[in-house]
Amino acid sequence: MNTATGERKRPPPVKVLSGQLRTAKENRGKADSGDGWSVKLGKGRSLAVSLVWMQGTVVEVQIDRNTVLLMDETGTFGVQGVNSIPKGKPCLSQGKYVMVMGVILAVSPEPVIRAVKMADLSELAALHRRMWKLEVEELQQLLA
Region Disordered: which residues (predicted)? Predict the structure, then answer.
């Protein structure tokens, strides 16, 4: 815990796919761990996460509801709080390929995260899209 501000330091974001969040389980009774969810990695392994890093294509923007719907190769996921993200406005156009870091709010029926940071990756979207699943798998193998 940071005694100056009274806040706990968050662990770094974990790269995940929306399909993995759909099957995540909430870590009940472990509020002090800072890791609110367990994401299944396969082979019976799981990883505790609170802050996630995701990438996807903007499918729908609802400025009035402060949300955007993104889609990665495993499905769609919602992102809330997009209107208050610094430099987030350029990301809020249908068809853009973006990265988003955020806190998991819900996993079912569709994953929803509260955005902390967003960035437009559209300029090199083809490369980012190809590499994303490999980046997710590599990081998760290192962390598990």
Answer: 1-36
